[in-house]
Amino acid sequence: MPTCCQQQCRHHTLNQAAADLHFNKVVRTAVEDRVIATNPVERIPLPKLTREEMRFLSVDELWRLGHAIDRRYRALVLLGGYGGLRIGETLALRWGRVDLDRGRIDTVEGLIDLAGTITFGPAKTKAALRSLTVPRFVATEFAAFTGGLVVVVREAQTRRGRRAPRRSCVPR
Asked: Which of 32, 106, 121, 164 is least surrounded by CB atoms within 10 angstroms?
């Protein structure tokens, strides 16, 4: 298991590689548009971007987590586990997109962090625009919520140690 420092260094390297790749594309476009004659960064070797295999909770682990946390959050945990929603998609759910009778949830937007400001934004990818069916017991957990948003977003301490508006969530 990498140390925190190794993870930060790797994260920085991956971010730098992505930035270099983007810059290379921009410069390549400038060459194609004949703004410059050659691409000076074309031959810079970039590190291979490797992804770690994702680990998913087992059914038993998911239920243990659901029972270990505050009951108000159980539906969110179960939705993440059984529906595969990202946290931003879950926090952006609106009741108009949730049909508890049919056990259907439509995802069309998410909460995104733009320079420390949390706001609603489009779905992260085209694949994120989806309608999914959740098991009856997940829909039953959601039946306890009411209001415009499935989750009320409030001010709280961010992971970066500074205050940001509307950062944490409490189910209605």
From this structure: 32
